[in-house]
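U., I forgot to send this yesterday:
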Amino acid sequence: MAGGGFGTASGGGDVEAKITPPAIISFIMTASGGLMIGYDVGISGGVTSMPHFLKELFPVVYKKTQEPGLESNYCKYNNQGLQLFTSSLYLAALISTFFASYTTRALGQKLTMFVAGILSMAGTVFNAAAVNLAMLIIGRILLGCGVGFANQVVLLFHSEIAPTRIRGAPYTLFRLNIAIGILFANLINYGTNKITEGYGWRVSLGLAAIPAGLLTVGSLVVVDTPNSLIERGKLEEGKAVLKRIRGVDNVDPEFLEIVEASRVAKEVKHPFQKPP
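Result:
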């Protein structure tokens, strides 16, 4: 199911279009979404091995790490609460992706990206301020929902904003920034682990607010895609946005393709079911 749009609506490579500011902003949005996902995924590994984090929230695991004769990391970190902290993000991301597909279809990519950013920032607050396991899990679930929404909508948004000839770029950019986000997370963990006062893990978890904030602010700046507007019946607004993002007045060929693609998409009543 293509939630909220249909990235292949414009199939022709000869559609007249320029590289406009909205297209450039869409690249930035793609980058910030990838950074957010990469950071949220990469930060937990280092945090869960920080002595101060374990001592404060997982004292049983901390005691195991201090046993002189216990060398196996599996035995040291084999704790259901610690595993739940790590895995809850992935489970929440998986489930929320399905809900995000309906959100993008009904409300558009702009609002869905805003929701992704807000969920991630809320999760960051819970994690950075956590005083018990419940706060950690709530924070990770919120982060997972943000990751799921962002993963579903960011590339779709870019594919519907960018001119046809550069639509192959966002996936590479998205994947690159996920890797960069993971790299930053590990570098930050390396530095915060050296904070002797014991709050380094809070800094690591709290800095996730930066890419989430970029995505949130960016969602307020960008326009909704013509595909999404047309799919929701806003034909004139969709055509006006198409002119703006293409930088030309002659958008009728692409506009008609999007309208036709929208008509075909609406005929699919149960997108998650196999057609007869």
